[in-house]
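Lecture 7 notes: from sequence to structure.

We start with a single chain of 211 residues. Read the sequence below before looking at the structure.
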Amino acid sequence: MTKQAILKLVGLVLIIAVLSLILTKTNALTWVQSGGGIDPTSIRARILFSGLVGLVSVTILPTAPFLMASGYLFGPLWGGGLCLLGLILGALLAFGLTRYCLYDVIRTPLFNRFPKLATLDQSVQRNGLLVAIGIRFVPIPAWAINYGLSLSPIRWVDYAVGSSIGLAPVTFIIANIGSNLANINSVKFIVSIGIYILFLLGIMVYRKTQS
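Now the structure, written as tokens:
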């Protein structure tokens, strides 16, 4: 590994570590979950929320609290849209950072050690868009998908479009649940939970038919 490659690797790790430290030390996650006096009609609040989601997406911190909080704070449509925008921006940032810092460094030794990865690599290259969509329905942390796909030959456009399509359903479904948290005994809340369960069952059935 060259000196430049080591510096890139260290730089990426530092970026992730510093962002994680800032977000945890400033209690950003707690602030969002508690509402923190956020004015849902404020354009500034919406921009800050999306930006915060994007930053969290670059780290290995959980993004799930934001999905729920987005609906609670901004409603199912605005909340889901703002959260989705943040998730996509964060995914693209993580993708770009890893492509620049690790792509050439990791791939060669990885493929030398695991030659069978070449078949998977070719599949991603041929069906990048479908892979980017499908993998978002697999129960894997978003950060792992972001960084993992960046080490594949998938194109930027396939990654961006596929991630947007793949992330949208669960983002809006959970945002819808969050929008009804104020009254968990309401029919709307029960229906929103039911939609989420049906969504999960649909994924399970589809995966079973494809196996």
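The mean pLDDT is 84. Keep this in mind for problem set 3.
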